[in-house]
Amino acid sequence: MHPRIMQAIAEANTNHTVAYGDDAWTRHAEDAVRELLGEKEIQPMFVFNGTGANVVALQACLLPFHSIICASTAHIAVDECGAPAKFTGCVLKEIVTPDGKLTPELVRPLLHGFGFEHHSQPKVIAISQTTELGTAYTPGELKALAGLAHEHDMYLFVDGTRMANACDNLDVSLREITVDCGVDIFTLGGTKNGLMMGEAIVPLREELAENLKYYRKQTTQLYSKMRFISAQFIPYLKEGIWLDNARRSNAAAQRLATEMKKIGVELTQKVESNQLFFILPKEITDKLLERYFFYSWDEERDESRLVCSWDTTDKDIDEFIAYLSGLQTK
């Protein structure tokens, strides 16, 4: 956790207040989201975690006979234990992509069967910003997907767990890659960017906001002591911590990537966030895992993933590179 976030939680732990989000901290946090987007009428909603945020947001968009189009690497397809399908009743139609990004050309072949009762009805294009492969959608790419969705009476949903990293990498505001691109509903991550817990769901269409609070409750994401989630978002957004943390983690990833390339490590994706994907011989990876924890991404290719934090230091990187370099020369 970022120390200022810990401080904000401690400061909120005073006296008593009304439960379930009817408190001053939550009102201030909601206003902070509105100010960041320049949208006075939206109603942000806070939940515990990323999977919960995705599931609640998707439920607002879907009926059980609809389908969700996503990349095969999408978090909702790979890392949420089937929660989106369970809670929405909808099928996920996965598309294989080289970089984790959907395009209109990839999506268009799945846009058929509208009005035919034997087929699930395409309703949501779901993407992640940044993607699970660390790549970032540009405003132009987002506008193209939103335009395609809207042509077919569909919604564009953005899992924004690492939205801050995308804003830093692209040098754009939050509004420029959401509201201005035609995004219909998105999540704004906190858990992976210095918060103890918490994500915000931001509906940008009135009909998606209408029943969101009921989905949040049914999905067990309504916290009675909501102020301890929302209190974090006040300094996180108002004091620029969200973007500063992303800038730090992105910069650390860029430095780590540079140093890994110097010692001959193959990177498999562009480094556009705080994530790096690389290939090493299994015997080296196994030794590296004895000292450092990271996930294997594709065992067939010996591909793994490293993630930098907002507090990753130059010393952390130098020690890692020195140890890896030593393993390569043995």
List the main descriptive attributes of the protein structure presented here.
14 helices; 7-stranded mixed sheet; single chain; 2 domains; 330 residues; globular; 4-stranded antiparallel sheet; Aspartate Aminotransferase, domain 2; Aspartate Aminotransferase, domain 1; alpha/beta
Account of the 3D structure:
The structure is a single chain. The protein is built from 14 helices and eleven strands. The protein is of the alpha/beta class. The protein folds into two domains: 3-239, 3-Layer(aba) Sandwich (Aspartate Aminotransferase, domain 2), CATH 3.40.640.10; 245-329, Aspartate Aminotransferase, domain 1, CATH 3.90.1150.10. It has helices at residues 3-12, 24-37, 50-61, 75-78, 83-88, 104-107, 139-151, 163-170, 206-209, 212-218, 227-238, 241-262, 282-289, 314-329, and strands spanning 45-47, 66-71, 91-95, 121-128, 155-159, 185-189, 199-203, 266-267, 275-279, 295-298, 303-307. The protein is globular and about 60 Å long.
Strand tally, please?
A: 11
> What are the low-pLDDT stretches, counting only 5+ consecutive residues below 50?
none
How many structurally independent domains?
2
How does the helix and strand content classify structurally?
alpha/beta
Q: How many helices in DSSP terms?
A: 14
Tell me the overall shape: globular
Q: How is the biggest beta sheet arranged?
A: 7 strands, mixed
Q: Major sheet: order of its strands?
A: 1-7-6-5-4-2-3
How much helical structure, as a percent, in the residues?
A: 40-55%
User: CATH homologous superfamily of the largest domain?
Assistant: Type I PLP-dependent aspartate aminotransferase-like (Major domain)
Helix-strand sequence: HHEHEHHEHEHEHEEHHHHEEHEEH
Distance between the termini: 37 Å
CATH topology name of the largest domain, in short, is Aspartate Aminotransferase, domain 2
Specify the CATH class of the largest domain: Alpha Beta
